[in-house]
Amino acid sequence: MTRSLCRLILITIFSFTASAASAQSGLASFERDELTIVTEEGTEHIFDIELAVDPKQQAQGLMFRRQMPADAGMLFIYKPSREAVMWMQNTFLPLDMLFIKADGRIVKIVERTVPQSHKRIPAGEAITGVLELNGGTVSRLGIKTGDRVEHSSF
Questions:
Q1: How far apart are CA 67 and CA 19, in angstroms?
Q2: pTM as predicted
């Protein structure tokens, strides 16, 4: 009886691990790049980013991440420009979201979004990109609307 119970537990653990690995393999992968935010005062902040350009990448975004380096982020690129709507479902990190026009100008900032929230976060106007950074980064670095994002997408 004990041997059967141990075998059943091991089979259950193996099945769970295999299905979790299978689910993880279905996650989107992202190309990396670099971008710079230039403040009105001329201060430059460089970030190592991942690019979310296709619908699968954009739907996943930073979901399931438990940590992100301080100088990292994800850039969602929308071509043509559109009124994007973001959300935090399955996202464990508080984020700062920067909504960016085609000329690279930041037109809206939403700071410290709530992890796991289903609340919709609309751009409010047609944009070309959304940059997601760790929550608190905008405040820490003094980034404001009107500052510019330098990247080949803009």
A1: 23
A2: 0.82
CA 98 to chain centre: 11
Q: How far apart are CA 70 and CA 92, in angstroms?
A: 15
Domain ranges of the chain: 29-150
Q: What does the pLDDT look like over 55-68, one tens digit per residue?
A: 999 999 999 999 99
Angstrom distance (rounded) from CA 56 to CA 104: 24
Superfamily (CATH) of domain 29-150: Protein of unknown function DUF192 (2.60.120.1140)
**If you average pLDDT over residues 117-122, what whole number do you get?**
96
Q: How would you label 14-30 residue by residue, b for 16+ Cβ within 10 Å and e otherwise?
A: eeeeeeeeeeeeeeeeb
DSSP code at position 74: E
